[in-house]
Amino acid sequence: MSIAITTQIICFTVLSLIILIGALGVVLLESIVYSAFLLGGVFMSVAGLYLLLNASFVAAAQVLVYVGAVNVLIIFAIMLVNKKEDLKPINDIKSRRIISTSICITLLSLLIRVDLTNVWSLSNPQNSIGEESTIRIGEHLFSDYLLPFEVASVLLLMAMIGAIVLARRDVMSKDISTGLPVDQELIEKSSEPLLTNKN
Amino acid sequence: MEYGLDLEYSFNEFLKGFGFSSEIAHLIWLPLPMLLVLVAAVVGVLVTVWLERKISAAAQQRIGPEYAGALGVLQPIADGLKLLVKEDIIPDKADGILFTAGPILVLVPVILSWLIVPFGQNLLISNVGIGIFLWIALSSIQPIGLLMSGYASNNKYSLLGGLRAAAQSISYEIPLALSVLAIVLMTNSLSTIDIVNQQSGAGILSWNIWRQPVGFLIFWICALAECERLPFDLPEAEEELVAGYQTEYAGMKFALFYLGSYINLILSALLVSILYLGGWGFPIPVELIAKFLNLPINAPLIQVLTASIGIVMTVLKAYLLVFIAILLRWTTPRVRIDQLLDLGWKFLLPISLANLLITAGLKLAFPQFFGG
Fold first, then answer.
1. In percent, how much of chain A has pLDDT > 70?
2. What three-state secondary structure class fits A48?
3. Least packed by Cβ within 10 Å: which of A60, A148, A197, B108?
């Protein structure tokens, strides 16, 4: 076995382990802050997998969009809204967990079935484009994938307008959807020290 | 490889002469450029710290460091040693794991970005196809480390500093990326080597700064904001936030932040010189001089000379920019956080979008000047 292949196998094993353990941690950990940071780690490892597949542009885009934008904003939001409140215990927590677990297992089995039935080997392995992929992605985005590309921008615009409406509630005294007075507590809330229950 | 020194090839041939296989030779070669660049980055930081102390002293009519070596050149080494042997403190109520991981996450992406900094035709660690995009992607990881250390310190000043740092770097990343995009549009490539080669036609006249003056200014302002240099050092504004996210840090962990911010400053200066000031290019093209002196461009001695000129030019341009950054730090007042965000979102973002649009239009109208 050549050195290059050994390195690839080692990288693949480490990245997959990080993704699996990290993703489990995101779901199972109690602390939401740890979950958010682990999510960043999972995104990074997925970018590493893209690199192993010779898709460096997709890997960099993954880091830029998912780690640099999505994950940073998630952490930002968690830290801005660090409100300590005693949550009411949910009565039927056990049945809820059973239902969500079974749905997840169904999805997982579906994915495994796709993985087993699909033919993964390329008809022509020499045809891989490598560094050319940046140009290819651009060509596809402006030809056969133009409509999805443009629709995605409309989606982003809608999300932006929604965010502005939510954020500028202080200029409106009434909620635009329900007509009730705006809950001013969300805008100016008393601050609590962080990590108060840590000893 | 058209021409230029190919050290990797000669090194591999040299090792093969001792009976190593080409794979082993490649393995031995791989860490060498990385180590070299790491050492260069750290030495660059030492020089910058000394410059900072001396120039700030000159700006305030003091003498500055004087006793450690001639003109105090050993002062940064003394600083580094002090930080190295200081006690490593993790505050009692802090979150130990995140507190330790924060500074690492700040430093590692900055060092990784040195992968794409070219000092000559073949003098870089890796000419990856995504080139400058790699730097933009990597620099977006940094805010996570800042938020992490701000949160884990369990101190309101640290948290505010971390939040400010993240807000600042999110807002200034966009105009930065847009001004880089205008350059990429002119080059038709993301690779830093291609970006420099595209500017090498007529020496100083073909540098991108003449074709992208607005982009140059936007990039420089955003780079200063990303490095958290004054007038944009709000995340660590002493008068308001003690020291921002660094408040609780001491010893080597603080040194990592310190190192990270200075390596980032040098990296930004290098990238400005690569994107806008012709990279390793001499103001008069070296090929023209060689032709004038009737020297063959491919002769080994000329190759070594042009490579050294390239390294000197890159470093010289970068340090001129570092000098401007230090002068700015000691002569301008700090902006307020709302002014900072206004500048980023309401001023730089529209201007960089317009710059991109105009560049695209000019490229279509004058393909010979703006890359076809």
1. 76
2. helix
3. A197
Asked if A61 lies within 8 A of B167 by C-beta distance, the reply is no
Backbone angles phi, psi at B2, to 5 degrees: -75, -75
What is the distance between the alpha carbons of residues B150 and B172, in angstroms, rounded to a whole number? 20
Q: Please tell me whether the interface predicted TM-score (ipTM) of this complex is above 0.85.
A: no
Decide if B185 contacts B358 (C-beta within 8 A): no
Looking at chain B, the whole-number percentage of residues with pLDDT higher than 70 is: 96
- Beta-carbon contacts of A175 under 8 Å, excluding residues fewer than 6 positions away, are A169, A181, A182
Residues sharing a CB contact under 8 Å with residue A192, sequence separation 6 or more, in sequence order: A82, A83, A84
Helix or strand holding residue B274 (H, E): helix B251-276
Q: Residue A83: which residues within 8 A CB-CB, separation 6 or more?
A: A189, A192
pLDDT tens figures, A75-96: 888 887 766 666 777 778 888 8
CB contact under 8 A, A69 and B156: no
- pLDDT, residue B157, reads 85
Within 8 A of B173 by CB-CB distance, chain A residues are 68
What pLDDT, on the 0 to 100 scale, is given for residue A85?
A: 65
Q: What global pTM score does this model have? A: 0.82
How far apart CA B335 and CA B320 sit, in angstroms, is 24
Question: What is the least distance, in Å, from the CA of A36 to any CA of chain B?
Answer: 10
Tokens of B237: 């504004």
CA distances from B72 to A187, B52, B65, B86 (A): 53, 12, 5, 22
CA-based nearest distance A83→chain B, Å: 14
> String of b and e for B193-218 (b: at least 16 CB within 10 Å)?
bbbbbbbbeebeebbbbebbeebbbb
Most confident listed range (B31-35, B51-55, B363-367): B51-55
> Using CA atoms, how far apart are residues B275 and B117, in angstroms rounded to an integer?
11
A187 touches chain B (CB under 8 A): no
Q: Tell which wins on pLDDT, A129 or B75.
A: B75
- The amino acid sitting at A100 is S
> Within A81-172, where are the H helices?
93-117, 133-141, 146-167
DSSP 8-state assignment for residue B95: -
Which of these, A41, A82, A30, lies nearest to B101 by C-alpha position? A41
**Structural contact between residues A136 and A59, judged by C-beta atoms closer than 8 angstroms:** no
Whether the predicted pLDDT of B353 surpasses 80: yes
Partner-chain residue, chosen from B136, B137, B144, that has the shortest CB–CB distance to A72: B144
Cα separation, A95 vs A98, in Å, equals 5
Distance CA B207, CA A87 (A): 61
Chain position carrying tokens 């890796």 = B126
Q: Which residues 14-53 of chain A have a CB within 8 Å of chain B?
A: 33, 37, 40, 44
